Hints:
This protein has 23 helices and two strands. With 558 residues, it is mainly alpha-helical.
Amino acid sequence: MAEKEDDPFFSDEEEEEEVIDPNTLGGDLYTAIEKNQTEVAVEFLQMGVPVDYLPEPSDENNNKASAWSMLHWAAYYGNIEVTENLLASGAGDIYKGEKMSEKIKRQAGRGGDGVSSIFVDTPLHKAASKGHLRCVWLLLQAGYSVDDTDLVGNTPLHLAAAGGHRDVVQCLCDHAADAGKRNNFKNTPINLCTDPAVRGLLKVAAGKGSLSEEAREEIMQKHLDQLADLEESITSVDMDSPSSVDIDSLVEMIERGASLGVSEEALTMGNAFVTELRLVRKLEAQVADLKANSPVVTQTLFCKYVNALKDTIGEVEALIKSQTGSDPEGGPSAPQGDDPLSAAVSLATELCQTAHSEYWLCVATNGVKNITRAGEEHVKMMGRLSESITTASMNEADEGLLVEARKVLGRLTAELEVGRAKEGFPDVKLPVDTEEMSAKEIKEYWLEEDPEKPVNTGHIEETRDWPKPPEDTGEYIWVPSVSYNNFSAAFSRLTAALEAAKSSEGNEELIEEGSKIALERGADMELLEGKNQEDKKTAITAAEKLAKKLGKKGKKKK
């Protein structure tokens, strides 16, 4: 203390690091084991906390719990790790030790009747009653007797038989447990047993004599080997061939492994396999159902098969995310289809996409197929149908649905085009009877009144050889008038639209209207074609004259 006072760097506000005495933590260790908190208990045991702690009586009757040792609780829960650590720390010897004798005397001096149950109701009774085979083995190896009785005269074999714990019964019988011993109520283990298989074991055991220590060791080793084989079988499931795995058999092995004390790691792995296999089978079954009922064309079927499959895909993606820590839709750990689960998800997702596109293709088709005459008011609906066809085609949808949808869209598109083409003819000047017109009047008729309107007269394209024709072809390049080109394009558009409408069985009334207009405009087209040819002939004649004239001038200069 004087050193602290003399130390100028020591502050009264500072506290020394508290050193915990392990001997004071017995109650904490007991509580951790009582609550089956494995990690906490093991940590305390590794710190060297004594294992001989017993709690004070919790009430005047000194209830049962206060008489349970740490080893009782570990055996009751079947906690192999804690049981092993307790036995390694000497918990199996405390009843013979001097400390426990003194503690019992102190407890007994306070009138604690329940203390005697420490001796008669052993940890082996707890493990046997719950069917914890591994703990039973550990306690037998630690020297616990198969013939100890509890307060009502039950041996561990009585309790194991009453619980129907076949493996524990077999183990106790192999260690020469007395199958004919009667409890305080005159019942033998066979009297308490309801499982026929266990009764058979007990009857066989009743007719046998006791085994030698060597024989017991041999049987124990055999059990340990079987346990190791069982654990290997659970953890070595061939997940690359899930169809070859019998899920029910795997579940049975896991349940048996849990009762025999297979490691938690192996059980966790086995249960993960079962979960994955069941999801794969569920996916496979739902995929088969969807295929059998495809194409899905009603909302009822869509909800029943497609939505159900989507929900299962969501379950699988959640499982994959929990296993990999990443979103299945992306990321470095996302499934790439290399394992059966990912492959099943990929197949199911593709099928859902196909079914989804087929359903909405039907919805879009049904929404427009009863339209008798397509118009501008139907353009948006037709656009949705077109998009649905594109998506369905990409997803390899049912060909029959695609054929029907394309047929409906083709008819509507043709009808819409006929309607547009009817109204799409430009205003142009048509040739008129010029017999009573003067040359000036004719010229003025074809003059452009509005410079923004299409030119009504064609012309020859002037090349570098002008006024001669291009040297490579020897023919003038004729450019029809803009008005002629526009009218010709409109006429061709209407003609093509009518052909498409007829071939797609479009609206007959519309086709008749369009055909009438095409007939009228066809006559106009003939007039414009005649004028175009006349203009071409006139322009070529003028160009040839000019070329000839320029040729003569060239000769004179020479």
